[in-house]
Amino acid sequence: MTKEKNAPKGLLISPIENGTVIDHITAGEALNVLRIIGITGTTQESISVATNVESGKIGFKDIVKIKNRELRKDEVDKIALIAPRASINIIRNYKVWDKKGVEIPSEVIGIVRCPNPGCISNTNEPIHSCFLVQPKGLRCVYCDWLISKDITSHII
Amino acid sequence: MRHIISIRDLDRAEIDGMLDHAQALQERRYDSEALKGRLLGLLFFEPSTRTRMSFASAIARLGGDSISMDSVEASSMVKGETLADTIRVVSGYVDAIVLRHPKEGAARLASEFAQVPVINAGDGAGQHPSQTLLDLYTIRQSMPLDGVTVGLLGDLRYGRTAHSLAHALSLYRATLHTISPKGLELPSGLASELRDTGTDVIEHDDVQEVVKDLDVLYVTRIQRERFPDSASYFKVASSYRVTPELLTGVRDHLIVLHPLPRVNEIDPRVDHLPYARYFEQSANGIPVRMAMLLRVMT
User: Fold this and answer.
1) At B64, is the secondary structure helix, strand, or coil?
2) Which CATH architecture has domain B7-127+284-297?
3) Contact A116 B106 (CB under 8 A)
4) Which residue among B8, B106, B109 sits closest to A144, beta carbon to beta carbon?
């Protein structure tokens, strides 16, 4: 991709004073990342999203900036399922106050729907879906179903 | 509190321990009042004859008693009550629950809400650990489980007994030969999981290819509802039928097992051959289920 010589300079998305920047998200997964951490169109946060941004580290990446909200570790670890190389920057007063990677949790509760139509977790019982994270994928604790690919399409 | 939900929850030492215990019980080495005054709740949301009766028999032989729902139609389920609530309520009536339910994972859910131990007696196409334990027990009566060569014949896609047994046998370095109609093969995920444990899983189209190499032939029912019409069902079912002719020249120590009920999978003439063990297998449900009850209720 060549850049035009006289193109006006500018920032793709502006810096935030306080909040969280999730960087190095797998390209195309930014909106799913927002879904997983529970940020939808009805929430109050001010969000900036950039997708398919060139990255020296992973080729192309997505970036999400969330103003005035610092994500907790248990919240961000959930996104490791679809963005294992993401980095989380907590911003205070325009500076990176804390930076960390994401760790895949040992179990995933209430995020992924079991694809097995016969599974008790797909009924009106008062439970959340629950999957164990295993080397080959996610295993439903109720029916043993293994989701080994395309986890994104099963996100609730 | 101990539950028995899935054979996956048990390691080899625990399984061997329960099989040893079942053997002692079968040799009548037990206290017939071990569970005196204890009450077992039989919650069967699906039809069952042998599993339900054998649990009732098992607790009675240990001095305990059992109560059960009359039928699903008469239960609060038809009023829309969740299983979670049913389990919480019944937990207050009994000292342990045996549950059969059409939904996979129902027993796991029950164990999360119960105040008493739960034994899974079959959850949809999922697990049925008491059947697996009695299958292993029956094989062990005839030969060591280590390194046994087992043919799994029939509907291996939906048949829960075959899945649980295959998993359990992988703990004993068994060799598994699978023989099933097209479309009813062992799920590929399960086959690869078994292979990951070092178990040889070899697929066949025709039982004749492999029957002479087997120590155990485990036959499961091919359900008519899996086929679009009766003609295609009968065509497939007849090609998977175990007959005396098929068993000509097999190993002397071969045993033929079936979780029952059988329909047409095994020719009744096979009943009279020394290989047939499915009725002993069914009777073994009593000591095995006694061992399970003692494990969770004492």
Assistant:
1) coil
2) 3-Layer(aba) Sandwich (3.40)
3) no
4) B8
Q: Is B233 exposed, middle or buried (0-12, 13-18, 19+ CB in 10 A)?
A: middle
Residue A10 is predicted with a pLDDT of 60
Give pLDDT tens digits for A104-136.
Answer: 889 999 889 999 999 999 999 999 999 999 988
Q: Which of 3.65.10.10, 3.40.50.720, 1.10.260.30, 3.40.50.1370 is the CATH number of B130-282?
A: 3.40.50.1370
Interface confidence, given as ipTM, is: 0.87
* pLDDT of residue A80 exceeding 90: no
In angstroms, the separation between the Cα of residue A22 and the nearest Cα of chain B is 34
Q: Choose among A121, A146, A148: nearest Cβ to B105.
A: A121
| pLDDT the model gives residue A4 | 53
Q: Taking CB atoms and an 8 Å limit, are A140 and B82 in contact across chains?
A: no
Q: Do B127 and A144 touch (CB under 8 A)?
A: yes
Measured between CB atoms, does B127 come within 8 Å of chain A? yes
| pLDDT at residue A8, rounded to an integer | 63
3-state helix, strand, coil in chain A (%, to 5): 15, 35, 50
Are A92 and A80 within 8 A, CB to CB? Answer: no
Q: How far is CA B206 from CA B177, B191, B227, B266, in A?
A: 11, 18, 19, 16
* CA trace torsion B14, B19, B24, B30 (10° rounding): 60
B112 at the A interface (CB within 8 A)?
yes
CA–CA distance, B263 with B292 (Å, rounded to integer): 29
Distance from CA of A116 to the nearest CA of B (A): 9
Q: How far is A40 from chain B (nearest CA, A)?
A: 30
Residue B148 scores a pLDDT above 60: yes
Considering only the beta carbons, identify the residue of B82, B102, B105 that sits closest to A143: B105
How many Cβ atoms are within 10 Å of A118's Cβ, its own excluded? 18
Chain A residue with the nearest C-alpha to that of B107: A142
**Number of other residues whose CB lies within 10 A of the CB of residue B283:** 14
